[in-house]
Amino acid sequence: MAKEEKYRDTERSGAIKIRSMQQEESPKIEYPCRYPIKVMGVDVDEFSSAIIDIIRQHAPELAEEDINFRPSRHGKYLAVNVIITARSLEQIKAIFDDLKASGRVAMVI
Fold first, then answer.
1. Alpha-carbon span 107 to 96, nearest angstrom
2. What Å distances lie between residue 3 and 15, 20, 57, 74, CA to CA?
Protein backbone atom coordinates (compact mmCIF):
# COMPACT_ATOMS: atom_id res chain seq x y z
CA MET A 1 0.00 0.00 0.00
CA ALA A 2 1.51 3.31 -1.06
CA LYS A 3 1.15 6.30 1.25
CA GLU A 4 1.76 9.92 0.50
CA GLU A 5 2.24 12.23 3.45
CA LYS A 6 1.89 15.99 3.26
CA TYR A 7 2.05 18.61 5.95
CA ARG A 8 -0.08 21.71 6.20
CA ASP A 9 0.47 24.60 8.59
CA THR A 10 -2.45 25.78 10.67
CA GLU A 11 -2.77 28.71 13.03
CA ARG A 12 -3.56 26.61 16.12
CA SER A 13 -1.47 23.48 16.18
CA GLY A 14 1.50 24.23 13.98
CA ALA A 15 1.31 21.28 11.61
CA ILE A 16 -1.34 18.71 10.91
CA LYS A 17 -0.38 15.54 9.13
CA ILE A 18 -2.67 14.75 6.22
CA ARG A 19 -2.47 11.29 4.75
CA SER A 20 -3.89 10.30 1.44
CA MET A 21 -3.86 6.64 0.55
CA GLN A 22 -4.08 5.38 -2.95
CA GLN A 23 -6.70 2.72 -3.57
CA GLU A 24 -5.59 -0.70 -2.49
CA GLU A 25 -5.46 -3.30 -5.21
CA SER A 26 -7.33 -6.56 -4.83
CA PRO A 27 -5.12 -9.49 -3.91
CA LYS A 28 -3.90 -11.38 -6.95
CA ILE A 29 -5.22 -14.91 -7.20
CA GLU A 30 -3.25 -17.53 -9.06
CA TYR A 31 -5.44 -19.95 -10.98
CA PRO A 32 -6.27 -22.76 -10.70
CA CYS A 33 -6.86 -22.60 -6.96
CA ARG A 34 -9.19 -23.90 -4.28
CA TYR A 35 -11.84 -21.22 -3.78
CA PRO A 36 -14.50 -21.27 -1.04
CA ILE A 37 -18.03 -20.05 -1.74
CA LYS A 38 -20.73 -19.63 0.90
CA VAL A 39 -24.35 -19.29 -0.22
CA MET A 40 -27.16 -18.48 2.19
CA GLY A 41 -30.89 -18.59 1.63
CA VAL A 42 -34.25 -19.69 3.00
CA ASP A 43 -34.24 -23.49 3.32
CA VAL A 44 -37.31 -24.34 1.22
CA ASP A 45 -38.11 -26.11 -2.05
CA GLU A 46 -34.86 -28.01 -2.57
CA PHE A 47 -32.73 -24.90 -1.96
CA SER A 48 -29.51 -26.86 -1.46
CA SER A 49 -30.00 -28.95 -4.62
CA ALA A 50 -30.67 -25.86 -6.71
CA ILE A 51 -27.52 -24.15 -5.40
CA ILE A 52 -25.33 -27.19 -6.04
CA ASP A 53 -26.77 -27.53 -9.57
CA ILE A 54 -25.93 -23.89 -10.36
CA ILE A 55 -22.39 -24.25 -9.07
CA ARG A 56 -21.85 -27.54 -10.95
CA GLN A 57 -22.80 -25.82 -14.22
CA HIS A 58 -19.57 -23.84 -13.85
CA ALA A 59 -17.49 -26.29 -11.80
CA PRO A 60 -18.58 -29.81 -12.80
CA GLU A 61 -15.70 -31.41 -10.90
CA LEU A 62 -17.19 -30.30 -7.54
CA ALA A 63 -16.72 -33.26 -5.19
CA GLU A 64 -19.18 -34.29 -2.48
CA GLU A 65 -16.49 -33.91 0.19
CA ASP A 66 -16.18 -30.23 -0.80
CA ILE A 67 -19.84 -29.52 0.02
CA ASN A 68 -21.03 -28.65 3.52
CA PHE A 69 -24.43 -27.57 4.84
CA ARG A 70 -25.19 -25.58 7.96
CA PRO A 71 -28.71 -24.67 9.05
CA SER A 72 -29.41 -21.51 11.02
CA ARG A 73 -30.21 -21.80 14.72
CA HIS A 74 -33.95 -21.88 14.11
CA GLY A 75 -33.76 -23.80 10.84
CA LYS A 76 -35.22 -21.12 8.57
CA TYR A 77 -31.99 -20.48 6.64
CA LEU A 78 -29.37 -22.79 5.22
CA ALA A 79 -25.73 -22.03 4.42
CA VAL A 80 -24.30 -24.07 1.57
CA ASN A 81 -20.50 -24.03 1.71
CA VAL A 82 -18.50 -25.36 -1.21
CA ILE A 83 -14.88 -25.32 -2.25
CA ILE A 84 -14.37 -25.32 -6.00
CA THR A 85 -11.27 -25.49 -8.12
CA ALA A 86 -11.47 -22.03 -9.64
CA ARG A 87 -9.96 -21.70 -13.10
CA SER A 88 -10.48 -17.96 -13.66
CA LEU A 89 -12.00 -14.79 -12.27
CA GLU A 90 -14.61 -14.99 -15.03
CA GLN A 91 -15.70 -18.42 -13.76
CA ILE A 92 -16.13 -17.08 -10.21
CA LYS A 93 -18.09 -14.06 -11.44
CA ALA A 94 -20.35 -16.28 -13.55
CA ILE A 95 -21.11 -18.48 -10.53
CA PHE A 96 -21.93 -15.45 -8.37
CA ASP A 97 -24.10 -13.92 -11.12
CA ASP A 98 -26.08 -17.13 -11.68
CA LEU A 99 -26.57 -17.66 -7.95
CA LYS A 100 -27.89 -14.11 -7.52
CA ALA A 101 -30.10 -14.42 -10.62
CA SER A 102 -31.75 -17.57 -9.23
CA GLY A 103 -33.85 -15.46 -6.87
CA ARG A 104 -33.32 -18.01 -4.10
CA VAL A 105 -30.14 -16.61 -2.61
CA ALA A 106 -30.05 -14.13 0.26
CA MET A 107 -26.25 -13.77 0.30
CA VAL A 108 -23.17 -15.06 -1.52
CA ILE A 109 -19.76 -14.73 0.11
1. 10
2. 18, 6, 43, 47
Q: Sketch the domain layout of the chain as residue ranges.
A: 33-108
Mean pLDDT of 41-54: 96
Predicted TM-score (pTM) of the model is 0.74
The topology (CATH level 3) of 33-108 is Alpha-Beta Plaits (3.30.70)
Give kind and range of the element (H or E) at residue 8: strand 3-10
3-12 pLDDT per residue, tens: 444 444 444 4
In angstroms, the first-to-last Cα distance of the chain is 25
User: What is the predicted pLDDT for the residue at 28?
Assistant: 85
C-alpha span between 85 and 62 (Å, rounded): 8
Q: What is the DSSP letter of 88?
A: -
Secondary structure element (H or E) that encloses residue 99, with its range: helix 89-101
Please give the backbone phi and psi of residue 40, each rounded to the nearest 5 degrees, phi first: -125, 140
